[in-house]
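Quick start: read one record
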Amino acid sequence: MATAQAPIGSPFGYRSTAMDVVAGIDLTGKIAFVTGGYSGLGTEVVRALASAGARVLIGARRPDKAAADLAGVSGAFEILELDLSDPASIDACAEEVARRTGQLHIIINNAAIMACPLARDARGYESQFATNHLGHFQLTARLWPLIKAAQGARLVSVSSIGHRLNGLSLDDPSFEHRDYDKWLAYGQAKSANALFALQLDKLGAPHGLRAFSVHPGGIVTPLQRHLTIDEQKAMGWFDVEGKVHPMFKTPAEGASTSVWCATSALLDGMGGVYCEDCNIGMLVSDPPPLASGVWPHICDTALAAALWDKSEAMTGVAFRP
């Protein structure tokens, strides 16, 4: 039975932290894999999972920087090299994961780029769609035997309120026949992240896998590296004096919903939904000017299936759960 896209009775909320979420949870014996688990939200996700006893494998484009950034994190974690824009790196990382473990209980597809100038990967695909969506699609496919072996795994696909920008075009996902717009490209990638979780949950549920997509909230992290401070002021993220908007979350607060989706017993038997503020998000039919809510297109099962087929064709990866 499909999970309703509607809030449930969660004890956590907007200002809860990742450490709040795992308090009292024992993840001893669980193995997690987190992409980008050394920057911004990723660091806090790793900190929380490791503190609860999980062994955490971290996919990092810059392993040396990851080691330095995680120097103060306690618990068991290992850093593996991973460049989500490079298909060969993805396959090599998956092979290394398989050498280190026979199962994965938690997968958090966290790494992302945002609103960058037009760039293309080695295959010619637009970089935001290639990195944020196609890279994680290929990685998850390669890790699938380990996910099935866990018998009850959860996958979290980090989406964004940026899904409202949409921009998803299955006819032209790489902006070859339309003018490039960095925000439409971001909206397309984040919509794809949510649709990926929707379809993966449908295909993976018979094997015990449940998948969720997540909006972490507004947070100041290195994700904004391609934006000028003037752009961020114009969008209201900073005031004229350069102070961050008071409704922005800390990285620890922003990491909480990913960790909640990965660990909460309240979500047992559920999946395929978009979550925010440590709860299932509310579906909206008439987009209001609010910083929350789920746009209907990311709940479209036919669109999710079509994106899945397109992703297989673009990556050459036959993902057959």
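The first strand starts at residue 31 and ends at 35.
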